[in-house]
Amino acid sequence: MSTHICEALVVSCIDFRLQKKIQKWLSKNFKNKAYDYVGFAGASKDLKIILKQLDISVRLHKIKQVVLIHHEDCGAYGKDSTPENHARDLKKAKKKITKLYPKLQTNLYYLHLDGKFDEVK
């Protein structure tokens, strides 16, 4: 099998309301860079699924970065879709990813319905 290398794995929610905003952001922030992209309801809410995809991206595509994007009014979170809960889960995901892949840069974002991205630190 030949090696294909890309910059990052980007994980976001499947919510159709935000796809154009995410693609616009990716076009700006990953201009002329290749990346793997996966969408799951709740983005990294089900971390086990994400970690499986991440492992494949690391092994096959030698990524250097992971980008996790959660969003406002997420149906997968239901009534628990608050900025605080998303920040908590994003930070939990980053901690686990850093433990498994210490050389990977992990960036966390919370996307508002109006298209504004907030970086979660």
From TrEMBL:
Gene Ontology MF, one: zinc ion binding
UniProt-listed Gene3D superfamilies: Carbonic anhydrase (3.40.1050.10)
InterPro entries, per the entry: Carbonic_anhydrase_sf (IPR036874), Pro_CA_2 (IPR046871)
Domain of life of the native organism: Bacteria
One Pfam short name: Pro_CA_2
Protein name per UniProt: Carbonic anhydrase
